[in-house]
Design a protein that fits this description.
Length: 434
């Protein structure tokens, strides 16, 4: 996703919004699309914290500043908001901070649909300065509005759940939206739009001639002969049509000959013809067992650069220092009667000091991470893990840094779960395929 900074954003939480969107990186490796930070559509009095145009839909992002950080925020779209069980109040009155932002989003959505009426449009209300968990009623989650504290993970989840258009947006549609909503935005070149997942606009295909004669005007009864009764020009001649060649008999003959040859060969070999077997399905990869734990590969790949696949402060550091290469792997692990998701990232650097510095940063809670490959490539079978509350371990070997996250599949996880910690420690020695 390409981030384009325009006007300063109005909300205090705007910096978190920008950082979360920037952490998704350029290209379609995670989501693709454009994120315009601080855009004010013409004839609108409100500056949006961000307008996200993805190949599958448009998202309106508006920041909502809370009076204090919260561990748990109850945020119904209609009704009382509560922070850690206490109603939010302003001037002594209970308030719903979503009311005005939703009204703004409704107006902007109407403008978007007036330009491209068939687009999917959603709204993200980004709350801060910090909220550990946001609770939305189940009925609200079926709609097109999400309330999140803007982190790379939450923003990615919101984009995935709201941008659900069937057909990818064309570069021509994107340009039309930019002209209507952000005429002051810098030009994005055609190849840059295609790199973000938008498809090239196709010119209309001219209709093929039908071969039917063209009708000419007929003079009304009693009209005098002359130019008024004559057609305006020479009468078009219908193009000649050659008889269509019918290939069906020839194809049938070739098929019969093939069957005859097959029958002769089978008769000579003494074998009876057997029913055609369906092509074999892809076999499940063989597990790699380490210390009694079976690790089965879900996805694995290598990358020449590290920063596009990182988030938060880790991504910022890698953007400054670079790396010599990145390998990632996602695995399932069968352990103690359950199944866990294992995400491994191996980063190589030119100097051992770089690996140690990044390990120290990565070990700091809230500093960011390397994106899980199975999640980014949508390779996990359902239910897909979200790595919330995952166990985390790291290790350096010279100029190489290995980071491991492990969480349960289909049940809650905690960072200090002994089984998850043991699995993560064991994964430090699991070889990555390729």
């Amino acid at each position: 996703m390409r981030l384009i900074r325009l006007a300063p954003q109005p909300a205090t939480v705007a910096e978190d919004i920008r950082a979360a969107l920037a952490s998704l990186g350029h290209g379609t490796g995670v989501t693709g699309g454009l994120a315009l930070a601080g855009v004010r559509p013409p004839e609108h009095s409100t500056t949006l914290d961000a307008l996200v145009i993805t190949p599958r839909g448009v998202l309106i992002v508006i920041g909502v500043d809370l009076p204090d950080p919260a561990m748990r925020l109850e945020a119904p779209l209609r009704g009382q908001w509560k922070s850690d069980g206490w109603p939010l109040v302003r001037g002594g009155d209970a308030v719903n901070p979503a009311t005005e932002p939703l009204a703004t989003a409704t107006r902007v959505a109407a403008r978007i649909r007036s330009v491209q009426g068939d687009l999917t449009v959603g709204t993200i209300l980004a709350v801060g300065p910090f909220v550990q968990a946001v609770d939305q009623p189940a009925t609200d989650l079926t709609g097109d509005v999400r309330v999140v504290h803007p982190t790379a993970t939450s923003m990615l989840a919101a984009v995935a759940s709201l941008a659900t258009g069937t057909n990818p947006m064309s570069t021509g549609q994107v340009r039309a939206l930019l002209r209507a909503l952000a005429p002051g935005a810098p030009e994005v070149r055609e190849h840059e739009l295609r790199a973000e997942g938008f498809v090239e606009a196709q010119p209309p295909v001219p209709a093929e001639p039908t071969g039917q004669p063209v009708s000419t005007p007929v003079a009304p009864a009693g009209a005098p002969p002359g130019p008024t009764a004559a057609p305006p020009g020479p009468r078009p001649v219908a193009p000649s049509r050659k008889p269509a060649v019918r290939w069906l008999p020839i194809t049938a003959i070739a098929l019969l000959l093939g069957l005859l040859v097959t029958a002769i060969v089978l008769a000579a070999s003494g074998k009876e013809p057997t029913a055609e077997q369906p092509p074999p399905s892809n076999p499940t990869p063989a597990p790699h067992t380490v210390d009694g734990i079976d690790f089965v590969t879900v996805a694995a790949t290598g990358e020449p650069d590290c920063a596009p696949h990182a988030t938060g402060d880790v991504q910022a550091r890698l953007s400054e220092t670079g790396c010599a290469g990145l390998r990632r792997g996602s695995f399932t692990a069968s352990v103690e009667g359950g199944k866990a998701a294992v995400s491994i990232a191996v980063l190589r650097f030119a100097e051992p000091e770089r690996a140690s510095e990044l390990r120290k940063l990565s070990d700091t809670p809230g500093s960011g991470a390397i994106l899980d490959l199975g999640t980014a490539s949508d390779r996990w079978p359902q239910p897909a893990p979200d790595f919330a509350g995952s166990a985390y371990v790291s290790r350096t070997e010279g100029a190489t840094l290995r980071l491991v996250q492990v969480s349960w599949i289909g049940r809650p996880s905690t960072p200090d779960d002994p089984t998850l910690v043991r699995t993560a420690t064991t994964a430090l020695t699991v070889p990555l395929p390729g």
